[in-house]
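During the no-cost extension, the postdoctoral fellow (Dr. R.K.) reprocessed legacy sequence entries with the updated structure-token encoder. One reprocessed record is reproduced below for audit purposes.
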Amino acid sequence: MDNHISIVPYSLARVAGSNQDKQDLKLAEACREFESLFLTILWRNMAKNAGVDLGPWDVLMSQSMGQVWAQGGGIGLAKVLYDQLSKSSPSDLPGDDEDGQESPMP
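Re-encoded structure tokens follow.
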């Protein structure tokens, strides 16, 4: 059973055909990854302050916990980031073209 909570509007998750839909999906994934990284750092600091020492497994455990938290819905950071960035970001970002060439800056 997948406990992943989507932050992408249903219409985008269902059909990602247009270029704007693809950009929105990329943005949503970047927001989820950012939240995962944030939660990884949070877990690492909590474990360190609690005196938990897993030796060489510490990094792997921290990354795993951050990813699991984010996939389980996280703390809502990804959704807030997505909502704010999807409103304010231009449709064509420099360097984000599929052909690998940068778009000229306006």
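The chain has a mean pLDDT of 76. The chain has one domain: 10-88. The remaining legacy entries will be reprocessed before the final report is submitted.
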